[in-house]
């Protein structure tokens, strides 16, 4: 704790001295690779979670995230506002995932590795049920249109606002709300047996 004359912990000291995104983006634009590496470390897990849920394939998700960060590095001079970097990453990741989905054959396969592991502190029977529910949810997500899946994931998993999602997928908030409502209705119907 840093108040009351107590010692500042290492974590607090790092948090207080870590540059914000805008500073790191500005430094990166000037060619500072270490600054860009910090941005990658900060956001690659978020982008990977989005990509793996959209694509249901870890290998494709890894490729997408790598392409997104390489592309972002190359196109940093095109970013008009340093503070918009995270939204820009979400947009590039979502668009790249949509392109991968469109390029695929129309078969749907769910990578079991793409499901999150059940918690280890619960009973084995419950763990199996949770794992089965997650597999069912991931399979149901793959039946949504790519656009609905993107909007639902950005809202429900990543907690973005309708306005932020609209900026990322390049539609108005009414369209975002409609896509999310249709996705929720579909998922609710598919997941009825699990209630």
UniProtKB/TrEMBL annotation:
InterPro entries assigned: RNA_pol_sigma-70-like, RNA_pol_sigma-70_dom, RNA_pol_sigma70_r2, RNA_pol_sigma70_r4_t2, RNA_pol_sigma_r2, RNA_pol_sigma_r3/r4-like, WH-like_DNA-bd_sf
Biased composition (Low complexity): 8-17
GO MF entry, a single one: DNA binding
Domain of life from the UniProt record: Bacteria
Keywords carried by this UniProt record: DNA-binding, Sigma factor, Transcription, Transcription regulation
Domain RNA polymerase sigma factor 70 region 4 type: 135-187
Entry's Gene Ontology BP terms: DNA-templated transcription initiation
Annotated RNA polymerase sigma-70 region domain residues: 39-105
Segments for region (Disordered): 1-26
PANTHER family the UniProt entry points to: RNA POLYMERASE ECF-TYPE SIGMA FACTO (PTHR43133), RNA POLYMERASE SIGMA FACTOR HI_1459-RELATED (PTHR43133:SF8)
Family: Belongs to the sigma-70 factor family. ECF subfamily.
Name this polypeptide is given: Sigma-70 family RNA polymerase sigma factor
Species the sequence originates in: Nocardia colli
Taxonomic lineage of the native organism: Bacteria, Bacillati, Actinomycetota, Actinomycetes, Mycobacteriales
